[in-house]
Design a protein that fits this description.
The complex is a heterodimer of chains A (305) and B (131). Chain A has 305 residues and is mainly alpha-helical. Chain A contains 11 helices and no strands. Chain A is globular, with a radius of gyration of 19 Å. In chain B, β1 and β2 form a beta hairpin. Chain B has a domain of 60 residues: Ubiquitin-like (UB roll) (Roll). The N terminus of chain B is likely disordered. The chains are: A mainly alpha (305), B alpha+beta (131). The interface between A and B is medium-sized, with 29 and 30 residues.
Amino acid sequence: MSTPDTTTGGHGDISTGVAGGDSNASATRITPGNALRPEDIALEVKTGLVKPSGDIAEYALRLGDDALILAQRLGHWISRAPELEEDIALGNIALDQLGHARSFLTYAGAAMRNEDGTAKSEDDLAYFRREHEFRSVQLFEQPNGDFAATIARQFVVSYYQYELYLRLTESKDETLAAIAAKAVKEVDYHRDHSSQWILRLAGGTEESRTRMIHGLRLMWPYVGELFRDDELTQRLAEAGAAVAPSSLKDDFDRLTAEVLTEAELEVPDVPAAPGGGRQGKHSEYLGYILAEMQVLAREHPGASW
Amino acid sequence: MSPHGNPDAPASAATEINREAPKAAPSPEQLAQPEHHDRSAWGLWEVFVRSSRGLSHVHAGSLHAPDAAMALRNARDLYTRRNEGVSIWVVPAEAIAASDPDSKGSFFESPQGKDYRHATYYTKSEGVKHL
């Protein structure tokens, strides 16, 4: 996930020499542009510029795990999507999520220690935790299913994440706010992608409409868990550092209903799943995802490629 | 697992390429609903990207999409992943009229040798300012 050493080069610093923002845009040269990167956060952690409290770290871990598990799920579509163009679209979304995960996990790791006393890196957290130590909610680990099921999951995730990151940009924790500011623009596009497909699948053929309805029914039991407050989010929300999940629900309900109405679909009436991902209780799927994601790093600790 | 765009979407140059190799003889149901299995309903679009303010849109490549809105999004995903663009145009490939490669001689060779069409052909007359 990371370059070996963020201070001395590697592909992490391709923007070296590109100072300033759009004012430096050149007509003849393509630059990677300037934006907050996980490497920047790692550098701040290393030099001691930022150090999250235990609460903030736990919160960042939650958001990072959500994004990481979704990235792993979406990555499975690469070379398997219905069309080449969609392959790239889902791959881009997966990479966006992986970027958010790297930022959140790097930040969370700054408050956690390995046995040798060093701060935990994003890789330590991604590859060397066990299933019950992951804090992602269960929606993110749900199987890809068919394309419509994936779109249904993307629809819920992106509308939830958009409301979350939009508010998190106001966080009193500057690093969380900065990660959210970068992520919210990307998630805005994910919203557009999923809603475009909801409209097309629902309004396409009888087959695509049936699958879209089925996909939404598969994912909707896991919606409730997204908006559940607990002691941690209450403490952090009162301190102005985090967003109370329950505060997102009205806007989520309103905006998703708009899309569903346009697609002539109904909000699925299905019983809610028990949830518990934030406490490390996961559905049967997460173990398999982790096995695939972690096997290489565990087989060859310290390997880089 | 085959999301279709608008099955009524106009056919395009892409229909020449059968992207779905038949693996088995079609079942009677498939024969009864041929349009539901016609993935070439995704038309071909040409993509033009403007890399920066003040420059013109340049042809970047082509892609398949069920309609213009999705073509723009696919173009964004395919051709601006590395910060290449500030604006995208998509055009149905069939809407582009192209010159005939076989008429290269009559179309493009006529200006050759007509150096009087270039400013450098002329010598500056004496006493002319601002040239």
